[in-house]
Amino acid sequence: MNAFRIHRRLVTASLSLVLAAGALAAESRIYRTVDENGNVVFTDVPPADGRAGRTVELGPGNTFTPPPTAASEGRSLESWLGRESDEDETEGAAIRYRSLRVAGPPHDQALRDNAGNVTVTAEVDPELAPSHVIQLYLDGALQQTGHTTRFELTNVDRGTHQVELRIVDASGNTLATSEPSVFHLQRRSVLLQPAKRSGNGAP
């Protein structure tokens, strides 16, 4: 008697599983029907009795793999967002400059330019790192900063001047300093120009 009851329960449980699987399969089906206006309709509701329709076989869904995030790489958000700048700083920190000098104008050279324009060029060994810049000082005052080895000064006063170059990193730390270089700029002075004569010939 007990064996009969156990067998009956097993049969009932198996039947319930089959019915549940069938219900799930029915729920996952998509039906294609055409309404009275000729419009094609896709739905998961089986068509009513007497209406034409057919089951649509669904292919595998598309998958998408998201790009790595700070959490997936085990890094903080600040570190992850600043990854490129960190790499540049690491690369720059590994560079040791063997020399930095003012290549032009040559030391102690006399220049003549009435507009006061002077071109200053630098020589760097090895070449400047992407995260480093060169600062140009004229007579001890910072004039220009850039990732370049050529600077254009304008309207420089006549007389003797001293230029100096410095390489600095992204944090403002000085990595190299050139020897000071001197040039002498000559400009035409208004005071030294001959006086213009008046129209009546008077001196």
Short synopsis of the structure:
It is built from 3 helices and 12 strands; from the N terminus they run αβββααβββββββββ.
Description:
The chain is an alpha+beta fold and 203 residues long. The protein has helices at 2-27, 77-81, 83-93, and strands at residues 30-34, 40-43, 54-56, 99-104, 109-112, 118-125, 133-138, 141-146, 150-153, 159-168, 174-177, 181-186. It contains 3 helices and 12 strands. Strands 5, 7, 8, 10, 11 and 12 form a 6-stranded mixed beta sheet that branches. It has a 3-stranded antiparallel beta sheet with strand order 2-1-3, with no helix packed on it.
- How many strand segments? 12
- Mean of the pLDDT scores? 77
- Tell me the structural class: alpha+beta
Helix content: 10-25%
- Overall geometric form: rod-shaped
Task: Supply the number of helical segments.
Answer: 3
- In angstroms, what is the radius of gyration? 42 Å
Attribute tags:
33% strand; six-stranded mixed beta sheet; 3 helices; 203 residues; three-stranded antiparallel beta sheet; alpha+beta
